[in-house]
Amino acid sequence: MPASRGSGRRLVIEADGGSRGNPGVAGYGALVRDPTTGSVLVELAEPLGQASNNVAEYSGLLAGLRAVIDLDPGASVRVRMDSKLVVEQMSGRWKIKHEDMRRLALEARDLCAEISDAGGSVDFEWIPREKNKDADALSNDAMDGKSVHRILTQAEGEPDGQDADDLAPEAVSASAFPEGVRPLRLLLVQAPLHAAVTPRVVTAVRGLVPSGAAVVGAGDALAEKVASDLADALGVHAEIADAWSGQAPGDGADARVRTAYHSLVATGGTVVAVTSRRGVLSVLSEVLGTPVERFWALATAPGSLTAVEVWEDGSASVAFTNRTAHLA
């Protein structure tokens, strides 16, 4: 198959992360900029709970790459960061010894490969901290507990080529969420068949969500056990509800699961939900608009992980499905 052609568009990612204590209270900031006009297209910030500075830096990179894929996966992308470690490791010049770094770098390389497969490209540039002030400010917002996902547009009637410092504040698009409601990061855990794999599930989830993330789960014994263990690991109390069982009468999507999902969307934040295969597919079919006759077409295994993200503008995307590496 011939390689995909890129879009010809150029985009710049500016990313940063920090940890007050290292490890300590951590967060990341990232933005995507049009280098031709200087316009900022996306601004992102998210608290990470307790994490190291390097984890926060990599998390900022990942957020920026995902934002580019949402905007234009065929673009030519320049990543600018003040983290020498991340830039050198992603450029292949430094070895990655720490397991957390190796996992995050692998995820970043997968995202870069997705851009490359779409005909785009990604390269990395180290910049001094004073030239990364916008991303640094966003990461400090995140460490203060603020979650940001802003889609920015060029002000109506504004000529191309305007200097970035002159961008009007009206360029910020309105949020589809009520004021104060954060985007939703939902990690769906399909209940395993046996309790013996629960520790592996807990370890995998801990690597994907911050401490303090909410946990909900179905009321059957095994799902409740998994939810309880996850809640203990994250330092929270699990909310157990039959709505997440995925066992309502009827075929296809479970309306109760969908109602529970929409309730989470209205609240936002990071949530882990332990449910059945039908529960996982009920959420996925809602996000993807899957027709009834294709409801069971997606493969999901017991103990697998699936991630859904709902942004401030109301759009939703599936970050990954049926992740099972932790079960091997």
From TrEMBL:
This is RNase H type-1 domain-containing protein. It comes from the Bacteria. CDD domains: RNase_HI_like. Transmembrane segments: none annotated. PROSITE patterns: RNASE_H_1 (PS50879). Residues 7-152 form the RNase H type-1 domain. InterPro entries: His_PPase_superfam (IPR029033), RNaseH-like_sf (IPR012337), RNaseH_domain (IPR002156), RNaseH_sf (IPR036397). Pfam families: RVT_3 (PF13456). It comes from Terrabacter carboxydivorans.
